[in-house]
Amino acid sequence: MLISIDFNSDEAFYMQLRNQIIMGIATSEIRDGENLPSVRDLADTVGINMHTVNKAYSILKQEGYLKLDRRRGAVVSVDVDRRRAIEELRTQLREAVARAVCRNVSETDINAILQEVVEEFR
After folding, report:
1. How confident is the model at residue 81 (pLDDT cuts 50, 70, 90)?
2. Contact of 18 with 59, CB cutoff 8 Å
3. Chain-centre distance for alpha carbon 29
4. Exposed e or buried b for every residue in 109-120, given b needs 16+ CB within 10 A?
5. Which CATH number fits domain 13-76: 1.20.1250.20, 1.10.630.10, 1.10.10.60, 1.10.10.10?
6. Rounded distance, CA 38 to CA 57, Å?
7. Cβ(42)–Cβ(28) under 8 Å?
8. Facing residues of 75 across strands?
9. Residue 69: which H helix or E strand, with range?
10. Model pTM score
11. Which of 86, 89, 92, 98 suits 64 as a labelling partner, its CA being 20 to 30 A distant?
12. Three-state DSSP class for residue 53
């Protein structure tokens, strides 16, 4: 698993870490049941504070991507509650589309972009 932090980005480090782990799961680079590095190891590897990694792991746990176990550490455990996942997706898409519409992005462009993104995961 290759994680890299963009120290020049306006996005918080814990969110960069969270997003990269989610992308790794979505692309099967990181698999269900796989152990992630310990908080200390990942912090040392990417050059960030342990509390930052801990915050990312905690958020991933709350969102249903990880289980935190004292013996095994952070274990990928994707929440299989499909209905909840669909509702979360609907909310996130609604917000993204609203931002796009406010910037005069056309429905055709939105559909094309959505299709491109879906294709990335096939």
Report:
1. confident
2. yes
3. 13
4. eeeeeeeeeeee
5. 1.10.10.10
6. 10
7. no
8. 35, 67
9. strand 66-69
10. 0.73
11. 98
12. helix
